[in-house]
Design brief:
Layout: E1 2-10, H1 14-25, E2 30-33, E3 45-46, E4 55-56, H2 70-73, E5 83-84, E6 90-93, E7 99-102, H3 106-114, H4 118-142, H5 149-156, H6 162-170, H7 173-180, H8 184-191, H9 206-220, E8 224-225, H10 231-242, E9 246-248, E10 253-259, E11 262-268, E12 273-282, H11 286-294, H12 296-299, H13 301-308, E13 315-323, E14 340-343, H14 348-359, E15 362-363, E16 369-372, H15 374-377, E17 387-396, E18 402-403, H16 413-431, H17 436-439, E19 440-446, H18 448-454, E20 492-494, H19 508-521, H20 525-530
Helix pairs in contact: 1-10, 1-19, 3-4, 4-9, 7-8, 7-9, 11-13
Amino acid sequence: MHGTCDAVVIGAGHNGLTCAAYLAKAGLSVLVLDAYDRVGGQCTSEELTLPGYQSDVHAIGYQFANLSPTPDELKLAEHGFELIRSNPNIVHVFPDGTSNGLFATIDETCESIGKFSNRDAQTWRTLFEGYLAQKEAITASVNYPPISFSDQTAGLSSPRGGFDLFRFQLQSVRAWADEVFEAPQTKLLVGTWAAHVGVAPDDGGGASLASLFNTVIQDGGNNLVKGGMHNLPRALVAVIQAHGGKVRTGTKVEKICVVNSKAVAVRLRDGEEIEVGTLVASSADPRHLALDLLGEDVIGGDVAANIRRYEYGLAAMSVFLALDRPCHYTAGEMPARSPAVHCTPANFEYLGQVFLEVRSGLLPSEPFCALWNEGSIDPSRIPPGKGLLKLFIAPVPYKIKGDAVGTISATTWDEAKEPFVNRLIARLERDFVPDLRQRIVAEAIQTPVDFERLLPSCYQGTVMHGSMVAYQMGAMRPIPELSGYRAPVSNVYLCGAGSHPGAGISMLPGRNAAQVIFRDLGIDFARTLAAY
């Protein structure tokens, strides 16, 4: 057995690094281990198309993290972390050349929405004012471990708005949007965000997710990390190292060694064992932690059975396009000034059909994607005068059973990816970006299978460490036996997106896990932060 440290953190994604940084600040000797050859997990940036074109490989938008105090608490700006906030925040374009969007100010947003409905503009203002009135409570709900399920349901039984809140939390995007807005363009602007977390228009729970996404973006922006998303994990690593911690990449953990219900070491792929002085924290996806790193003999048959039925949701893929110059949108100049552009018809039937086809295992006939204007928003990522676009396509099937159109016969992603991407680009050219194909000088495609090959935590091509469905959120995430950031082993903790508050770039699961660990070790969290 080699080496000893107080805390071993498995996974150098942004949540694992966040947890490790807080532990290092508290004076613990910390070692972070990751199988990939660089830090960041799903927060990496690479030259995927051509030299000099820096693309965000997985995560790109910085939205929910607007609610996180971590950048200030850890002083990430001192280590090269900087955000770019654009105006507009998001633009939604339609096939007839019209558009709307969320802008930096509520007045600008209401003006944009008001092009289609003055009533909707006032409704959005009222909804946003309601968010601001509750912002302190919303922020607290995600910045601390979740309240118990019984306390949550007790709150819903309150005669003052309890039923309305319960209804809203289970309501679908379509039902909610039809209830509060009148223009289909407004409904799609606000409702489309739910699709990014695998929620179809008629799935339960989509309303609250879409409402929160949009109001957080209206308030704090839909930001990009300057120079690439990789500058977030790089800053976190700098904090860890400044406090004596270490990070090792290309180092795969194969087993957490447990003796008498306590983790005593971690065993690496090459056979090396590293002694654990105090604790192990894992940001790996919860199924991998439970079944592989710990094992059924440690967690027990009931827990193993529960985690095996944990739902991961639908797969995703990305296309990266290096351009000889920025492309043009049919809707005018505004979309090119936005970090993200959604392109759909002005109805939920389109999105519903995409989900129906994908859930049947079919390549969708009209794929849905978000266009991310990486190059125009952050010119530091590209050579002068060039362009860089990322297409994030979700949902898509992980296992291809067929093609909704019947023109693609391939049933493996390695064979199907080129004709499928050609279909997508043809659709975008037809309805939204007429000069797209002629601007492309190089492309790179990452399919769901590529996601999983690169990062095992992208289980079956998913990117969320578990679906964001109602029974896998809050105190029930990932499952009750692994909730509250604790594994069924006394000194093993969960600190990844498979824990509350869930998926996305936020640093919140890592920070919340650190709070639980501090409490268990008798360390004052606030006093530790105030000391630096």
